[in-house]
Give the backbone structure.
Amino acid sequence: MKLKSLFLYIFVLISFSSCQFNQLIIEESKKNLFSLDIENSIPVSFEQKLKFIFNSENNKNKQGQILLKNYIFSNYDIYGGPSLRSLEGELRLEIDISIYANKQINKKLVVYKRYKSNELNPFAQEQMIKALESEMQNELIKEIIFEVNAFEM
């Protein structure tokens, strides 16, 4: 019995150590390669998250530039059935990103989320939308990091 549990324990440890799961990050040496320019339409909370990841000092000796603009957060309610309230809601967050260096990339990044709204009161629904927007911002930051890493290759 002890031999079986020991074998299971070793097998789990080997499988966890060999899966090679790494968090998507920007290396410290690459943080200083790009200057970050943010348009006025981007909210302060998202801007602070971006400045935490990228060093945002506007030095002229940077190799490239990341320009973020046209931040659009929209909510679409889906109605159906006999109720007067919406059954679901769909949130959409989009932003335009332009990366300049010796070449140029322009992309529109979009994140969608759906939530059930028929189970919530209006105050809880507002709080859920705020929490989902923050989660969507984090996903958008991961996409921006991916695009910057892909641009450097």
